[in-house]
Design brief:
globular, 15 strands, 274 residues, 5-stranded mixed beta sheet, mainly beta, Immunoglobulin-like, 6-stranded antiparallel beta sheet
Length: 274
């Protein structure tokens, strides 16, 4: 399955301190002391305390935030590219961005956002072997000079990752057996066409109502959307509840197509197979 979990880069003033545009200014003494470093902590930026706990060991269930300290150009901007390298396997997974502040957070793994670096997250989900791995994050400027670097260990397959929840225990927003069966059929067709390895057997609607999408300019109805969790089983015998969105296109006259179309994919959560 090709899952688009992105490496999201958000501009932020770290520790709620002001960001300056002068190239010799810093957001804090901590920033100045760690210029050119990438430090890591658990949780998303919205949940981080004023002084987050910096650690260097995680498992693949953690939401990992990278705090990046860079000196800006004269105009306060920072342009960079970069990569995430696992166990020294080059060329790694690409990062590219341009921001106008120099205290950043990078969502290395995230439960709340979709981002641009699907490759790294797909690797974690599908290709990374169980065990402990070394992950290096490196950023460089337009001259290919390294401007920041950091590393952490990432463990996959530990006891903390064993599923404890059954798919049947997930609370439904509403029940529609016909729609659920259509969703399973639609996603298995997509999986077969795109050579996904998993097989989906059950669906549970988590939406409480259909979400109507309209053209932002004309206000014309485009489609209606619904969100579900689907139970999939992989060749290694492991099961996951996968967040997916589906839609029915508007056909006019207050009616929608009876065809349910796959529309989006989100997080997956390990569950007990059933």
């Amino acid at each position: 399955m090709k899952k688009n979990i992105v490496l999201l880069i958000i501009t932020a003033s770290l520790f709620s301190l002001p960001v300056f545009s002068q190239k010799d200014s810093y957001v804090s003494d901590f920033h100045k002391a760690h210029e050119g470093q990438i430090l890591f902590c658990k949780g998303s930026i919205k949940d981080l305390p004023p002084e987050p706990v910096i650690i260097d060991a995680f498992n693949t269930k953690d939401e990992i935030t990278a705090c990046v300290f860079l000196k800006p150009n004269d105009d306060g901007s920072v342009k960079f590219k970069g990569k995430i390298v696992v166990d020294g396997a080059e060329p790694g997974f690409e990062i590219e961005n341009q921001k106008y502040k120099f205290a950043f957070v990078l969502y290395i793994t995230s439960n709340n956002f979709s981002t641009e670096s699907a490759g790294f997250n797909n690797f974690i989900l599908f290709d990374m072997k169980d065990g402990k791995h070394n992950v290096v994050v490196e950023l460089w400027n337009e001259k290919k000079e390294t401007i920041a670097k950091g590393e952490f260990s990432l463990e996959k397959g530990g006891a903390s990752e064993k599923p404890t929840k059954k798919f049947s225990s997930i609370k439904a927003g509403m029940v529609n057996t016909t729609i659920e069966q259509q969703a399973v059929k639609a996603i298995n067709t997509k999986a077969a066409n795109e050579n996904w390895t998993e097989k989906y057997t059950k669906a549970k609607i988590v939406s409480t109502n259909w979400e109507i999408e309209k053209n932002e300019i004309t206000g014309a109805i485009i489609c209606r959307k619904i969100y579900m969790k689907l139970l999939g089983q992989w060749p290694d015998g492991k099961c996951n509840a996968v967040d997916m969105g589906f839609r029915q296109d508007y056909v006019g006259g207050g009616k929608y197509s009876s065809t349910l179309i796959y529309n989006s994919i989100g997080d997956m959560t390990p569950v007990i197979c059933e």
